[in-house]
Automatic annotation (TrEMBL):
PANTHER family: BLR0577 PROTEIN. SUPFAM superfamilies: FAD/NAD(P)-binding domain. InterPro entries: FAD/NAD-bd_sf, HpyO/CreE_NAD-binding, L-asp_N-monooxygenase_NS-form. This is FAD-dependent urate hydroxylase HpyO/Asp monooxygenase CreE-like FAD/NAD(P)-binding domain-containing protein. Coiled coil: none annotated. Residues 27-186 form the FAD-dependent urate hydroxylase HpyO/Asp monooxygenase CreE-like FAD/NAD(P)-binding domain. It comes from the Bacteria. It comes from Rosistilla carotiformis.
Length: 575
């Protein structure tokens, strides 16, 4: 390094230290919805401070749409839908419901559009992204009256702890901060972990949709295998059909697909379990009786009363019994069928989980869940179990988060939770109806649901075959529709570096990043780490249920912001 450059860097670092000494510097790393929530809560806290030192806020978000991030980018196709009803989405916490500017999604939509929104609708993710982006712009404007705010459109690659601060590295500059919060979500679009068996096959990820699933990447009239049978499989399948000009027509009780000729010849999903995600009811089509509220309330109270940590006998005999009892009570409320006992609910779930599900059974489960979710069939045990899990979930979050489940019980709970994701948190009923239409049209082929891909004799590594007991199918293109789990940190991301440096650690059993109720990582001696917070997906297990836009399910952003405001006030008083 030449002398002038070295002197310039030294002067810049000295200037940064001087600036930090006369101000309080905060870095927000990742500004999707969680980053937005932290900023909004911080704005509320800073507004209440009688006086404060100069506050500097640097926001690091590499995507084009801060507040929305990749997942809710407003530019994505509108056929990519939420599986979370519009009425539950509100980016503002601690704000009066009468505030006309800082309002929930439904009020914002009705202000911006001539046709009012049904609060029970599952709307396009792009529309939610437009709402979140506008919320970010409002929060950004508020904060600029309270602090020096800069948005950096770059990616943070490394974080290092110093004696009294945190040093942050990007590809453009380095900075030192008194307070640093990581809300990095999925850490960008990337592939999931490799399949259970080693394979030379290439499975490019489904996202980003336009780049990875366009006609240039997946030509028309080819046969496509999709790894995964969950929400991302549905997104990918819609991109390859509706995104290619295909039309879905809802005629009578079912959907019908009218092909464009640009879609694949066949779309062949496969997964380890073969079990589908069941349709989530639209409450405008299938209203939930008010009487169910008492059932859910009793269930939540029973879960809240369980001892902590929940050990093996409590998980099997107490927690699961509470959920089964609530489900049985819910389905019995509707009548019209024989009386259902909690034991029968448990028996149904045991059969559901038993081995890989055959394609015929999987298809039948999808058809039945669609009929129930749209009010065309009477409520059944799968509906009741899903409804119980959804409505008791806030109590599960309260009881199990922060070490509320014994470490040795996590494998069992994770298996149950994975299955309940399929039963309770599935796609909107309309999208299940569309998938059924594609099956009926012969575009989606479920016959190889539990097959293992095998490289074919072709020299192209992306070509494979799938085989069941009777026949096989040759695949032209493979797509990965399995997202990385919360425990799979990006190898070049800041969280992985902090873990390697033993600055953060995983909660034994759950494997989520161990944090306290403010989002502060807990060190090896059981102490919270001052000036650092991790909020959101990476803490899954330590904090249950992070993949949500709900602001009522978790309060870490509010707690973190209040703690930061206290630190700022103490700093001012000590000057």
């Amino acid at each position: 390094m030449n002398a002038p450059l070295a002197m310039s860097i030294a002067n810049a670092e000295a200037s940064a230290k001087s600036s930090r000494a006369s101000s309080f510097k905060i870095a927000i790393v990742g500004c999707g919805p969680r980053g937005l929530y932290c900023l909004q809560s911080l704005s509320e806290q800073l507004r209440q401070l009688p006086r404060s030192p100069r506050v500097v806020i640097d926001i690091f978000e590499p995507t084009e749409f801060p507040g929305a991030g990749n997942v809710y980018a407003p530019c994505q196709p509108h056929y990519l839908k939420m599986n979370f009803a519009a009425k539950h989405i509100n980016a503002w916490a601690g704000v009066s419901e009468d505030d006309a500017e800082r309002c929930n999604l439904v009020r914002w939509f009705n202000r911006e559009h001539p046709v009012p929104l049904d609060p029970n609708d599952f709307i396009p993710r792009a529309v939610v992204g437009a709402y979140l982006r506008e919320c970010f712009q409002s929060v950004h404007a508020e904060l600029r009256t309270l602090a020096d705010v800069t948005l950096h459109r770059c990616k943070v690659t490394q974080i290092q702890g110093r004696d009294t601060c945190w040093r942050l590295h990007t590809d453009r500059f380095n900075g030192e901060y008194d307070e640093l919060v990581l809300t990095v979500g999925h850490e960008g679009w990337r592939s999931s972990e490799p399949m259970s068996k080693p394979t030379p096959l290439k499975f490019p990820p489904a996202f980003p949709i336009r780049e990875n699933l366009g006609r240039h990447a997946v030509p028309p009239r080819t046969t496509v295998a999709i790894r995964g049978f969950g929400l991302t499989w549905i997104d990918a399948t819609l991109a390859l059909t509706m995104g290619r000009g295909g039309i879905f027509d809802e005629s009578g009780e079912n959907w019908r697909y009218l092909p464009s000729g640009e879609e694949p010849r066949r779309i062949v999903p496969f997964s380890r379990s073969g079990r589908p995600m069941l349709a989530k009811p639209n409450e405008s089509l299938f209203p939930q009786p008010v009487a169910l509220d008492a059932i859910w309330s009793r269930g939540c109270e029973s879960i809240d009363a369980l001892p902590s940590p929940i050990a093996g006998c409590d998980l099997r005999s107490a927690l699961w019994r509470i959920i089964a009892r609530a489900a049985a009570s819910a389905v019995n409320h509707f009548g019209g069928r024989g009386f259902v006992t909690p034991a029968e609910v448990q028996s149904w779930f045991a059969v559901w989980c038993r081995g890989a599900m055959q394609p015929e059974a999987s298809l039948a489960a999808m058809r039945q869940s669609y009929r129930v979710a749209t009010g065309r069939a009477a409520p059944d045990v799968p509906w009741a179990l899903g409804a119980a899990w959804r409505n008791l979930y806030p109590a599960l979050v309260r009881r199990i988060s922060y070490g509320g489940l014994a470490a040795e019980q996590w494998p069992t709970f994770r298996r149950v939770a994975t299955e309940m994701e399929r039963i309770a948190f599935g796609p909107p009923a309309d999208n299940v109806g569309r998938m059924l239409a594609l099956v009926d049209a012969g575009v989606v082929d479920l016959r190889f649901l539990t097959a293992e891909p095998r490289p074919s004799d072709s020299s192209q590594s992306s070509v494979c075959t799938l085989a069941n007991d009777r026949e096989n199918v040759t695949i032209d293109h493979c797509i990965d529709a399995v997202l990385p789990s919360p425990y799979q940190l990006h190898r070049s991301g800041p969280l992985h570096g902090l873990l390697d440096a033993d600055i953060i650690q995983r909660l034994h059993g759950s494997e989520g990043i161990l944090v306290d109720r403010l989002g502060r990582p807990i060190d090896g001696k059981g102490r919270p780490t001052l000036g650092l917070a991790i909020i959101g997906r990476a803490t899954e297990g330590c904090v249950l249920g992070n993949d949500t836009l709900s602001r009522s399910l978790h309060d870490q952003p509010q707690r973190w912001a209040a703690d930061v405001a206290t630190r700022i006030q103490v700093l001012q008083e000590n000057r």
